[in-house]
Specification:
Layout: E1 10-14, H1 17-20, H2 33-37, H3 52-66, E2 70-74, H4 77-80, H5 90-105, E3 109-115, H6 121-127, H7 134-150, E4 156-161, H8 163-168, H9 170-173, H10 185-208, E5 213-219, E6 223-225, H11 230-253, H12 258-266, H13 277-283, E7 288-292, E8 297-300, E9 328-329, E10 333-336, H14 352-366, E11 370-374, H15 391-409, E12 414-417, E13 439-441, E14 453-455, H16 457-467
Parallel strand pairs: 1-2, 1-12, 2-3, 3-4, 4-5, 5-7, 6-8, 7-11, 11-12
Antiparallel strand pairs: 8-10, 9-10, 13-14
Helix pairs in contact: 3-5, 7-10, 10-13, 11-12, 14-15
Bound molecules: 6-O-phosphono-beta-D-glucopyranose.
The site of 6-O-phosphono-beta-D-glucopyranose (BG6) has 15 residues, from loops.
Length: 475
């Protein structure tokens, strides 16, 4: 019998507000930190992005044509509350009312992220954004507004996108004032504030949204050891603990992973906590996990001459082998290129087995349902005679879907596949040079062109996958 995904499996794709919407200063919206952080990078900025703000109807028609049953998008905090707090912006709300209603009219379940990197600049200017504890209350107020307005129509809520990546690339995913630049503890402080904010919102979802489920979208990479040398195996355990369980234990057990916490304390990097914080985390346990998986990671125990705190830096050129820097945590682990796996042009490992590995590993540890909320291949797509032949992306997704299916056969609850990305969007580190979409957007970093939507080969492939509930690509 032909294999399929389970009945009711959600099919769709994902985007985020600042990467897709544009209209950065339109209809009352004020700047978010992403509008500023993406200015002057040498790539496109977020001012127009993929112009979804003006073309959402056309875009939803394309989702429908592809057969989507779900769509993950994010709300822009500074479109709804331009100053982060205070008066809501009627035009901003109107946009999301229209978006949500149009999705529902087309039989597409909206799955929003409340926060995808874009803290309002007003709050950065007021109190340094997430660095201040005040951000917790302001985020809770903003979230409460969304829950009350959309909780009748939206049941699955992803609260924060990729906290793990916000910590790893803390100066790129947060607008960090100069005075903190050499204070690495700040990233774990930000993380602690986000944990408290998320836990509080999780509680509110259970309180205000009938049948609501609270989730988070984690940026997740399984960590492999370079080899079986005992020291390198220990480095793998260390990295799994600090990069993965340090987040998921909070989400699903309501407390921090122990070894990682003690290690951070030894290093002088642990967050400052207050009485009552532990109780807030205990009360805010989430119901499901959004998994953003692109690539697995490889570690070894730090080499003697590299054994000092080193922060990760992306590959900006898109030439293989030009990764800015690999992260090192002294006496704990050192990231490195996996000699046994292929990569894309930006040095991201291509590893479908990693998908099965992480799903089974997470499920055995936490026993929670999961939705794949991002998965995709960044590439320089070429437009040729009005067509884009992205067979490499089809191959990538086919293999990952087979890995997901195998995990499901082995008992893991995976409820949907929402890959990155629905349409080409502004990449977080590589502008429009690196594309992920099922649909091409006719623009590049320098020239906005006509922003036309052009279906890639992967769009037609995905249409068949969805129509057959996976059968056309499962083997
Ligand atoms: C995830 C983010 O980290 O990866 C997305 O949630 C992002 O916002 C995606 O676009 C791909 O990363 P990049 O840097 O290639 O755009």
């Amino acid at each position: 019998m032909k294999k399929t995904m389970p009945q009711g499996f959600l099919w769709g794709a994902s985007t985020s507000a600042y990467q897709v919407e544009g209209a950065a200063l339109e209809d009352g919206k004020k700047l978010s930190q992403m509008d500023l952080l993406n200015a002057d990078t040498g790539f496109a900025d977020a001012s127009v992005a993929s112009d979804h703000y003006h073309r959402y109807k056309e875009d939803i028609a394309l989702m429908k044509e592809c057969g989507f049953t779900a769509y993950r998008f994010s709300f822009s905090w500074s479109r709804i509350f331009p100053d982060g707090v205070g008066e809501a912006n009627p035009k901003g709300i109107e946009f999301y009312d229209n978006l949500v209603n149009e999705l529902i009219r087309n039989g597409i379940k909206p799955i929003p992220t409340i926060y995808h990197y874009d803290m309002p600049m007003a709050l950065v200017e007021k109190y340094d954004g997430w660095i201040s504890r005040q951000s917790i209350d302001d985020f809770v107020e903003y979230s409460k507004f969304l829950l009350l307005r959309y909780g009748d129509r939206i049941k699955d809520w992803l609260i924060i996108n990729e906290q793990s990546i916000i910590v790893e690339f803390w100066k790129k995913k947060n607008y960090i004032p100069e005075k903190y630049h050499d204070k690495a503890q700040v990233k774990f402080q930000i993380n602690h504030h986000m944990n408290l904010a998320q836990a509080k919102v999780s509680k509110l979802i259970h309180q205000y949204v009938e049948g609501g489920r609270a989730g988070s979208a984690i940026g997740y990479s399984p960590v492999y050891a370079l080899d079986s040398s005992p020291k390198n195996m220990l480095a793998m355990l260390n990295a799994e603990n600090l990069k993965n369980q340090y987040f998921l234990d909070v989400y699903f057990k309501g407390h921090y992973a122990k070894s990682a916490s003690l290690y951070l304390k030894e290093q002088g990097l642990a967050p400052i906590t207050e009485d009552g914080d532990a109780e807030i985390l205990r009360q805010g346990i989430l119901d499901f996990l959004g998994v953003n998986y692109y690539a697995s990671k490889c570690v070894r125990f730090p080499e003697a001459d590299k054994n000092r705190l080193t922060e990760a830096k992306s590959n900006l050129s898109g030439q293989k082998g030009q990764m800015g820097a690999y992260e090192v945590m002294p006496d704990f682990y050192q990231y490195m290129k996996n000699p046994n796996a292929e990569t894309n042009d930006w040095d991201w490992t291509i590893d479908p087995n990693g998908m099965e590995y992480l799903l089974r590993d997470i499920y055995e540890r936490y026993g929670i349902p999961m939705i794949i909320t991002e998965n995709g291949l960044g590439a320089r797509d070429i437009l040729e005679n009005g067509e884009i032949h992205d067979s490499y992306r089809i191959d990538y997704w086919s293999k990952h879907l087979n890995a997901i299916h195998r995990a499901i056969e082995l008992g893991v609850e995976v409820q949907g596949f929402l890959p990155w990305s629905f349409i080409d969007v502004l990449s977080t580190s590589n502008g429009y040079q690196k594309r992920y979409g099922l649909i091409y957007v006719n623009r590049d970093d320098e020239d906005l062109k006509d922003l036309a939507r052009i279906k890639k080969d992967s769009f037609y492939w995905y249409q068949e996958v969805i129509a057959s509930n996976g059968a056309s690509c499962l083997n």
